[in-house]
Amino acid sequence: MQHRRLGKSAIYVSDICMGTMTFGTQVDEKMSLRVLDQSLDAGINFFDTAENYPVPPKEEWAGVTEEIVGRWLKTKNRDAVIIATKVCGPSHGWIRGSMRAGMTALDRHNIKHAIEGSLKRLGTDYVDLYQTHWPDHGTDYDETMETLDELVRDGKVRVLGCSNETSWGLMKSIEASERNGFARYRTIQNNFSLNNRRFEDELAQVCRHEGVSLLSYSPIGGGVLSGKYNDGKTPEGARFSSYLEHGGRQAAMVKRFVNERTLAATERFMAIAADADMSPVTMATAWSKQHDFVASTLVGVSHQDQLPEIFAAADLKLDQDLLEAIDGVSKEIMYPMG
Question: Could you tell me how far CA 210 lies from the centroid of its own chain?
Fold first, then answer.
């Protein structure tokens, strides 16, 4: 397993990070603990969670994932494990936070309450990386960054990051931090995969010039790039199969991830992987890691049997011919997720 620095911070992490958003819903606690143990044994030292997990967010489930990770963490050497978690963004937009009666925001009140809750559930006195889960472009960035800076100064947080942020929002936050002398974002956690390469358009340049690392999530396109949704399949227990039953935002998300263009691109990517004698999951994970602006690629599973294909990407470097074949599909089927 390779290791990379989070932005210009002092923290080095494995270039594969185990995400935990399924822990407590799709994955029960017993299997969650096995996934965490097997990941650590495979050389992964970086684990990502959030106060809003598990998904889909519900008030009765709020914080369950952090509690599971916390019980596991108590059995490990805390210094050897890098823990990332997140504070909910505003609940008046595209998603409603599961915490604080759905009245979440990125103001001082919410951030202070969120970190105390996360530390208690995780059973630790600090988190290594604290991230804003989604942006609050209506809140003064000075207030958000000042409050986050206080958490760093208090020793409750080592490094700051954002998630699902735009180029404008990332630069706005950096400007606020630099103008006021606050701690700044060192990472951004955004969607990035073979089926969603939009990060390369603008945000990649921001990362390169501002010393911010991407933590790419959904490198397998929410499981789509495994091929399990091709040919009209809706496998039982799969994330998007269950999301179709929820309707609303979850159903809208399915249409973005699983559509005619994403499935067509996936079929092409699967053929490329087969010619290279590797799993499409392995290829997609390795591709994500093979970018200069990426520090770590976040993966997730609904069953421990999915781990070997992910672990196979640990030290894999895709050759130039394979990369060119992948680029050919991306040029022919541009932006399949919209």
Answer: 20
Residue type, 71: R
The pTM is what? 0.96
Q: How many CB atoms lie within 10 A of CB 125?
A: 9
Instruction: Classify domain 3-189 by CATH architecture.
Output: Alpha-Beta Barrel (3.20)
> Which is the catalytic residue, given 12, 53, 185, 243?
53
53 annotated active-site: yes
Helix (H) or strand (E) holding 189: strand 185-189
Long-range contacts of 169-178 (CB under 8 A, 24+ apart): 169/135, 169/137, 170/203, 170/206, 170/210, 170/212, 171/206, 171/210, 172/141, 173/141, 173/144, 173/145, 174/210, 174/212, 175/141, 176/141, 176/142, 176/144, 176/145, 177/145, 177/149
Nearest CA to 46 among 8, 75, 84, 98?
A: 84
Of residues 245, 261, 305, 307, the one with CA closest to residue 282? 307
**Two tokens at 229?**
């949704």
Per the omega criterion (within 30 degrees of 0), is the bond before 90 cis? no
Q: Identify the bridge partners of residue 188 per DSSP, sorted by sequence position.
A: 162, 214
What is the SS3 assignment for 244-282? HHHCHHHHHHHHHHCCHHHHHHHHHHHHHHHHCCCCHHH
Instruction: Give percent of the chain with pLDDT exceeding 70.
Output: 99
Q: What does the domain layout of the chain look like in residue ranges?
A: 3-189
Q: Give tens-digit pLDDT for 208-243.
A: 999 999 999 999 999 999 999 999 888 887 778 777
